[in-house]
Amino acid sequence: MQKLGMQTIKFDVTPTITSTACIVGPKESDGPLASYFDKCLDDEFWGEETWEKAESKIIKETVSLAVAKSKIASQEIDYCFAGDLLNQCISSSFGLRELNIPFFGVFGACSTFVESMCLGSVFIDGGGAQNVLCATSSHFCSAEKQFRFPLELGNQRPPTSQWTVTGSGAAVLSKSGNGPYITHITPGKIVDLGIKDANNMGAAMAPAAVDTLLTHFKDTGRAPSYYDLILTGDLGHIGKEITIDMMKTHGYNIKSNYNDCGVLIFDKATQDTHSGGSGCACCGTVFSGYVFQQLQQKKVQKVLLIATGALTNATSAQQGESIPGIAHAVSIEL
Amino acid sequence: MQKLGMQTIKFDVTPTITSTACIVGPKESDGPLASYFDKCLDDEFWGEETWEKAESKIIKETVSLAVAKSKIASQEIDYCFAGDLLNQCISSSFGLRELNIPFFGVFGACSTFVESMCLGSVFIDGGGAQNVLCATSSHFCSAEKQFRFPLELGNQRPPTSQWTVTGSGAAVLSKSGNGPYITHITPGKIVDLGIKDANNMGAAMAPAAVDTLLTHFKDTGRAPSYYDLILTGDLGHIGKEITIDMMKTHGYNIKSNYNDCGVLIFDKATQDTHSGGSGCACCGTVFSGYVFQQLQQKKVQKVLLIATGALTNATSAQQGESIPGIAHAVSIEL
Known about the structure:
The structure is a homodimer. Helices cover 35% and strands 23% of the residues of chain A. Chain A has eleven helices and 15 strands. Chain A is α/β, with parallel strands linked by helices. The first copy, chain A, is globular and about 50 Å long.
């Protein structure tokens, strides 16, 4: 591998995304991308006693499916990179504790899926691994309870708020294979422009997405038009518009080939999800389902996936802190 | 780099630990290792309004000190790997948000310091980075409040309990340098033998330490006697004894060259810390202070550092879950 510019790494042994898998909850199953997901659940508990245990089950089953689809024996998978939104990433730890694969816990908030792909790719290109597993999850109920209010309170959600995706996305990356290939990564810096509204994560994270996008284009010498699709993770409708506007002020028009997983996953008109989807699984499931199939069918050939994360918690919000954002990008090409 | 056996990676470009830094709180400043720390604080707040903000300040200042000691310009540091025990790792995110270095959030509970060193070393050996920064923190007050009970309650601590270290440890790793070198890493699997007592983390984590130790010896063909010092991160007195016993049942006698950072950092007889120190900063500060100086002075030449983490949270404990453990090992040699 080779460092390009300030933040980007260009791979020599471009890792192949061998397989992906995704399982989603009931709300996502009613959305426009339902047919692309491997499994659509019809309740939020999936037979478990708590939302946290349900989330662990979702990531466990998703990982199991991704490994099965890869046709690689699980003992041939060298390392697993995973994390989630729950305090101390318990969804991943409990969901994957029986996996028996050396485990790197990752916390990038909603950028975790791409952060895991960045780390896994470096291990493969460097020669430390033949195959790695990348996974993440989120759950509307466990996230609302933890970050905002008890669901039982039934409080009203402001128009800027986003709906945490219930689900999990996982990918197996391999040293050898026929693509889609991970050709570059641009890990992001923490960016904090002072947004304090915990119900407007899109606005808090958009500046990080813009920072990483600008850096990626500068480091690689590529223009936005190089990509068939530039896709952010969970900025939602408001964050997407902010990103388009901010990129425009920097001289880049990304309107024609840019979209956001949080915009795609729900139908704004009928699903009452306000600014769209969010959560680690938003990017995880939309990429693992919809985008990966688009790549396999060659409907898109070059994708820049940028997952954004809000590095905040309930205590920091109560203590008057703003919301730092981060965005990691991965370039995926056939 | 080269994969050895099931879990270990052997480096070709063995990264040098260019500098380390550590700042500790008042209790640690009264302990036997006080003279090895860069800065000893005399109160838990360090002028901040909350314990969380104090912890962020501690990691921020520690990182700043590690970079200054490395004599490497911060813009020459390619990536930062950091995490902590607070929900959503806010100590690291807030403490390092002005760092302006691409950031990988890591969650390995108390194994975070070594997990960060593992990831950073792979980036360096692979050619993706010239210099990386690894950091972690913990704080007795913020951890007690979050994981156990309000400090104001003044509840009694059982004899198996450990005392979370207030402090931060940081290290700068570089492609070129005169050592100490990171020669191997053995990232661990999640191991859960069913311990449910949140006041006995040593017992919960010891099986993971043993699993990683056995794997490391098998993968590398080394015997425990190869190392001058085998050092676990925060098993404390009870976890240390369990580890010695379990290793013995597997045919390894590690008694003569094995110790634990949680045993070393406090004086059991006078400091009322029961089973010893714990927390991300336990391994982070003891390594960055005491052990790194021992290496520099060639009092030890070969160290196997194994940081252990308990992958649990307050909710999982309330929901009757056991405590999964993990242990990551890094081999450091002159």
